[in-house]
Amino acid sequence: MVRVAPIRTLSALLSLGLLAAACSSDDQPPQSTCASGNTSGMVAQAASVDLYVGDPQRVDLGLFTPENCFVSFGTVDVSFSLLGDAAQTSEQPGPTATAVFVPTFGMPDRSSPPVMTQPDEGRGVYEATGVVFDSAGVWLAEVTADVEGLGPQTAQATFAVQERPTLPAPGDRAQPTKNLTVNSKGVPLAAIDSRAASTDTIPDPGLHRWTIARAIAEGRPALVVFATPVFCVSKFCGPVTDMVEDLSSRYDDRAVFIHVEIWRDFENQVLNRAAVDWLWPQRPNGDLTEPWLFLIGADGRIVDRWSSMWSEREVETDLEALPPMKG
Fold first, then answer.
1. What is the rounded distance in angstroms from the CA atom of residue 243 to the CA atom of residue 106?
2. What is the pLDDT of residues 284-307, one digit of tens each?
């Protein structure tokens, strides 16, 4: 167990726009000008962390307006540049990409240009894939979107790129963590899955039967989601955990599927040891980011990872590339 000060979740990076997705105090959707197109402009927020130099990566961006509207669906153009410092005052152009909208699991997608939506109609992020950064530092993402009913819009977001990843990354050997399971004794059910606090039962029990250590020891690939469905700021963690449950029903011959709850005791800010092992290495400032998804290969090395939000189709592609398990 590790006791910490209140942590900054990855989802909190989108809190300005995504908290607007929550209901108001009387449980009614907040008033919005989304349908009219009456807005003061588009805002961008980087949703990806632990980006680093050299390898192709996914960069997620949330787009919304100060009036509690989301920009959703379709694609947007993104250009990246390294910001100058005292020695280099001008921006250095970097890669460009087309970012595709990734809706939260269970929310309908549609083929349309970007459009302003109510929070309950189009919650998600725009994902740019295969982005390679050649230098560490503070980078700028400039997003250009032709928003239906609003016209061309531009917004900028800054984010950090490191020399090396802080968290486990593709190619690294996975830590043989003994996460809590349905067989764990002497722990609150909510420490196994935060949703159990209100139901007194473990939801998705199939996601809570294996430890990462056992999967590695038996040479089985594992898809592991680190998330706290109840306490996640952006409301992403419940949907992404549900996505992993959905994948487990269709790809149980390719991997074992594991959910790791972040909190052992949320009220007293105590983290589960497994979350610390994977998501809090060398973090003296107390920052922990979630949700995360890791695919571990049969050799015990990390094949892929996703942060914040991810496309179910992308994860399916990685699972389909695995050979069927024996036994």
1. 8
2. 555 778 899 999 999 999 999 999
121 neighbors 112 (Cβ within 8 angstroms): no
Q: What is the pTM of this model?
A: 0.87
Q: How far is CA 121 from the centre of its chain?
A: 19
Give the Cα-Cα-Cα angle 59, 85, 9 (nearest 5 degrees). Answer: 35
Asked if 65 and 35 touch (Cβ cutoff 8 Å), the reply is: no
Q: How far is CA 174 from the centre of its chain?
A: 19
The residue type found at 191 is: A
User: By the 8 A CB rule, do 38 and 79 touch?
Assistant: no
Candidate ranges 35-49, 188-202, 276-290; pick with highest mean pLDDT: 188-202
Q: 211 burial class (0-12, 13-18, 19+ CB within 10 angstroms)?
A: buried
Q: Give the Cα-Cα-Cα angle 316, 318, 217 (nearest 5 degrees).
A: 115
pLDDT digits (tens, 9 = 90+) for 76-118: 999 999 996 545 556 788 999 999 999 888 777 778 899 998 8
Helix (H, G, I), strand (E, B), or coil: what is residue 191? helix
Three-state DSSP state, 1:
coil
Residue 238 is given by DSSP the state: H
Residue 77 parent element (H or E): strand 75-82
Give the H or E element holding residue 148: none
Write down all domains in the chain, each with its CATH number in brackets. 31-162 (2.60.40.10), 189-320 (3.40.30.10)
Tell me the C-alpha distance between 326 and 40, whole Å: 57
